[in-house]
């Protein structure tokens, strides 16, 4: 029997298990027991048990320790270790007898199941604390597996172990409180010395945590599979050919679009070089290298070639791909078929080129039309203006007024066409300047008053008291709209009145918005025609055009201008009830109006015109005649040049205070001549001379081109006399005064009356000589300097210019000894003299 000091810690009946049974464990277990050797005699034995295999019963071996007690301490330690393992709280150890009744129930079992050992020992079997459905299912499964009927119950739990088969399985245990938990159970049969089964040992561990981990892992695995499926679905549904390559450019995966693009299967593509499927393999390989170096490539164009030879232009976009450790895995690339878009792009480029050609043709036509119409119109209107200022009979005056009106109408039509083309091309630019609304309305009224008076119409202009008069905006375009609307009102009104009224816009409008209303008592417009009055070349009735004339562009341009200024325009009318055109325009207050008024009021009398020397550059004899007539009664002295080349020669040889430069001329145009003049002035460090461009072209950009070439101002033909005189006065006064204040004293030379007509050409030739001698000195050509100096020495005195004779002699002498420095000083003296000389 068990002695009290050697009994196992687990509570059990000593008679139930002889000391000869072993406890299965991993490794070697030592324990000491007492067995009967002879009757009433106890002999201590050292029992060593070894596990040959996991979960196999221990085969004990006995040695008589009576002859050697040196291992006593070791045996005691082994017994303590055995008890510690068996009573571990980390797993349950349940030992039963051969029938399954629980005999041992360790601390771990108590903790896991909630029972005390006393509550279960000798009372129940492990099957009683197991899920019955699982027990039944296990019995059924084992019956099928082993081919023998197994009764559900404890037998199902230990059947394999009873047959010597290793048995580890999962089972659900019920706790005392009714809760359940999964366990992993290892079953071992306990045998006596004769190998008869005397019981079973069930070692179990709580599998809850493991199942949770496994469940979570299953979720993660499923999520990964779902993600892979989703990703693959995205890849396959893409319209682009997608592929991945390793860093060396070997394809590692593709989608169906890539298969379609190349005509190869996925298996054929994987493992093949990326570059093999493009018409330019080197460029394709460069694409891979580029994305590896730049990390990303966009819109890299390649041409793919399929097995059947079909070529497809693709836009290649790619990026590098990495694993979680940021190790480079390769390249992910997308190739989009852009064949159609490339074709469309080509067609668009062709269409754009055609449109640009058409636009240039239109611009060239408009420029040509403008020039060809404005050039004779300048003569027509100019002559009419000049005639109107001469004594005329009433009949002659009537004739003059007729072709003045005709010229104005033609000019208005030309301006309308040009304005419309600018608006359509979004090339019309607005001013943003301060102006007086009163001045704009008054000047507009003056321009239409004569026509209204001729028809016996009352012309009413009213401005509401609360309307500010000093504003910021584009007065020119505002006046143009008012003239169009008032002109139409007068044209279509036979009796009654035409009125212009200005008032603040309704509160709903933007701050500072004014409303202009032009009303008449004329023929009116049918209701079904109101929507068309603002269309191009449209009038309410075609018979209206025959009776009243007009191009039908005025209202179209007015609408575009109002909208460009940020407003809107509308009309209300009825047949025989007159018309009322209204438009709104947002305008800001002019803060500088007070200063302007003070300057205007402080102005003194008009200054006396200075005696300017003007170079008129104009190829048209008619326009030269008109310009000369405009300037006839001024103190200006006019020289004429028929083209830009002559103008340049005269300018560098003469001394002018201002140049009037036509733009389009034969031989050399005005802009080229202007650029040459400016270059000459810069080379000779001269103060820039005002150059006023006179052009018959009024397209957008013409003014900028003239200013860029070096022109000071820009006037559009036909040019009124007062406009020309004002421009000359504005741009010449300061320059002429500056020249007079900064120049040396003028040298006055009284001309010989007999030679007076020849002197200008003589002086001009001497200026050319200066240029020629400077060039000769630069080349070391003293013969030319000597020859020209000799010529001046002989001719200067004859024209009354002794200084030229003296300088000519000095030049001749300096050239004779090849003295370049002396020659340069003489040329500087001659040039200064020519700039200062004034023939009286």
From TrEMBL:
Top-rank taxon: Bacteria
Membrane topology reported for the UniProt record: Multi-pass membrane protein
Location, primary (coarse class): membrane
Domain PAC: 167-219, 298-350
UniProt keyword list: ATP-binding, Cell cycle, Cell membrane, Kinase, Membrane, Nucleotide-binding, Phosphoprotein, Signal, Transferase, Transmembrane, Transmembrane helix, Two-component regulatory system, Virulence
Domain Histidine kinase span(s) in chain numbering: 368-589
4-aspartylphosphate: residues bearing it: 662
Compartments it resides in: Cell membrane
Phosphohistidine: modified positions: 790
One MF annotation (Gene Ontology) recorded for this entry: ATP binding
Protein name: Virulence sensor protein BvgS
The organism of origin for this protein: Caenimonas sedimenti
